[in-house]
UniProtKB/TrEMBL annotation:
Species name: Corynebacterium gallinarum
GO molecular function: copper ion binding; oxidoreductase activity
Protein name: Multicopper oxidase CueO
Record keyword Oxidoreductase present: yes
Recorded family membership: Belongs to the multicopper oxidase family.
Keyword Metal-binding: yes
Lineage top rank: taxon: Bacteria
Summary of subunit composition and partner proteins: Monomer.
Lineage of producing organism: Bacteria, Bacillati, Actinomycetota, Actinomycetes, Mycobacteriales
Keyword list, A-Z: Metal-binding, Oxidoreductase
Length: 512
């Protein structure tokens, strides 16, 4: 419960002196906890589409430049809110790369405090992963490079400074990272970015009376919001110009699970999970997404019709008791998220949805002789331990899959387990009656109370004893409170280094 205090001070210190005084006095007033729930209604506003990052490309080498900066945006209509963004006021541009590309991202920290940037879902060397061992100090630039080995998928990027990930993401540091490959090239599906291929970044916030973000951690719930946003605004509206739209859904919130459905319960096709396409599309009329997860869906729209993407109450409250002793994680909430209007009558008709997307996704990792490890999640701990930046919890000394068996040992809390530098298939989910969608390759999996998931995990193999990867609960308050562990990948028989990471200045250089 100490960290949030420090966080706020750091934020205030980072702003210009005058602004800092104002912010400080506002904060003192706001400290009383008078957060104002806002209607997400009002006049609908056009859904903002994060710009595609303009990289510098030469053959299969691409360089992106991102600056994390402070700004102001209109999350709510007619109210200005101080936010953070990459190359802009709020959120970040969508980065794109192809499998096989050599990517460099030069990230400059234009904030008043240290942060890090992590490539969620990417298989890459630990030194480029951007976890808590890769701080970027204010004014510095960090330039990781790696070769993309992921198949086509919707990945994302967000900060990862230990203890502060939730707050930095909440202020707006998040963006999509889209990977394409031969399979995505070959599919006859919507792929015109911003036209019929639409990123949908879901978050939630709380606001003070004056429009500033309420950054108070609620007991047990951290930065759970009461006001949902899509691509950074409330009341978003999308005017479709085509009869079929592909939504790349990303839950970038700190703590909120959404149970997505359309207002008329229309069926839609789920075509991809966190780490890429399914073998075959899956028809559903509702879909659970938790913090850190992604799904891609195809929705067909009739000319002129109106339909709303909503989040509706979870069947069985996601297994979380509904009593006065249990925190309200929001599973009973319902929200309108995005209103949608169908295309004009002249919009061309759509082709049949491909029956097969990625046939290779049928194949599960061969885990017959794979090492097995167990992870027991309870409140803020994993296997009874809290995160220690200098402790290695797991050493992987081979280039093969493993079975990770992950149990949510809490009877009343949900968790959402994520592994860096990896993708997995959920082999089984037991210990719960709740139906959790676990199809396809994933990197994050929701665990209702009591649930045990057996994961067949494939890691990227870039042995390096000094640069650990993280596994953690992606409910960011849990992560920041210590629900995280570290694994190191080494050569066969290898040992982790005595000193992890490179120190705060070893891999970022000063610019300007
Ligand atoms: Cu989005 Cu450590 O993760
Ligand atoms: Cu990650
Ligand atoms: Cu958790």
């Amino acid at each position: 419960m100490q960290l949030p205090e420090i966080n706020r001070r750091a934020f205030i210190k980072g702003a210009g002196a005058t602004v800092a005084m104002v912010a400080a006095s506002r904060f003192l007033v706001a400290c009383a906890g008078d957060s104002t729930p806002r209607g997400y209604g009002g006049e609908p506003r056009p859904l903002p589409i994060p710009p595609l990052a303009e990289g510098e490309r030469e053959g299969n080498r691409v360089i992106y430049r991102l600056t994390a900066q402070e700004g102001q945006s209109n999350i709510l209509p007619d109210v200005t809110t101080r936010t953070w963004g990459f190359n802009g006021d709020h959120l970040g541009p969508t980065l794109t790369a192809r499998k096989g590309d050599e990517v460099t991202v030069e990230i400059t920290n234009g904030l008043g405090e240290m942060t890090t940037i992590h490539w969620h879902g990417m298989k890459l060397p630990g030194i480029a992963d951007g976890g808590p061992h890769s701080p970027i100090e204010p004014g510095e630039t960090w330039s990781p490079s790696w070769t993309v080995s992921n198949t086509a998928a919707t990945l994302w990027y967000h900060p990862h400074p230990h203890g502060l990930t939730g707050l930095h993401a909440y202020r707006g540091l998040a963006g999509a990272f889209v990977i394409e490959d031969e399979v995505s090239d070959s599919l006859d599906i919507p792929k015109d970015y911003g036209v019929d291929d639409i990123p949908v970044v879901l978050m939630d916030h709380r606001f003070h009376e004056d429009g500033s973000l309420d950054e108070e951690d609620l007991p047990d719930l951290g930065l759970l919001g009461d006001t949902p946003t899509v691509n950074g605004i409330t009341g978003a509206h999308f005017d479709a110009t085509t009869r079929r739209v592909r939504f790349r859904l990303l839950d970038g919130s700190n703590m909120r699970f959404f149970n997505l459905a359309f207002s008329d319960d229309r069926p839609f096709q789920v075509i991809a999970g966190d780490s890429g396409f399914f073998a075959e599309p899956l028809e559903r009329s509702s879909l659970i997404i938790g913090p850190g997860e992604r799904w891609e869906i195809l929705v067909d729209l009739e000319p002129g019709e109106d339909v709303t993407l909503r989040s509706v109450a979870f069947p069985g409250n996601f297994g979380v008791p509904e009593d006065e002793y249990t925190p309200d994680f929001g599973f009973a909430d319902s929200f309108d998220l995005l209103t949608i209007t169908g295309p004009a009558e002249e919009a061309p008709s759509t082709p049949a949805i491909p029956g097969v997307f990625d046939p290779a996704a049928r194949q599960d990792p061969d885990v017959i002789d794979a090492p097995e490890r167990t992870f027991v999640l309870n409140t803020f701990s994993i296997n009874d331990q809290m995160m220690d930046m200098q402790r290695v919890d797991v050493v992987i000394d081979h280039d093969g899959p493993e079975i990770w068996e992950v149990t949510n040992d809490n009877s009343d809390w949900p968790h959402n387990f994520h592994i860096h530098n990896a993708r997995f298939k959920v082999v089984s989910m037991t210990g719960t009656d709740i139906e959790v969608p676990v199809d396809g390759w994933k990197d994050t999996v929701g665990l209702p109370p009591g649930a045990t998931a057996r994961l067949a995990v494939e890691f990227g193999y870039h042995p390096d004893p000094a640069w650990p990867y993280m596994y953690h609960c992606h409910m960011l308050y849990h992560e920041d409170q210590g629900m995280m562990g570290q694994f190191v990948i080494v050569e066969p028989g290898g040992q982790p280094a005595d000193q992890l990471g490179g120190g705060s200045h070893a891999h970022a250089h000063h610019v300007g």
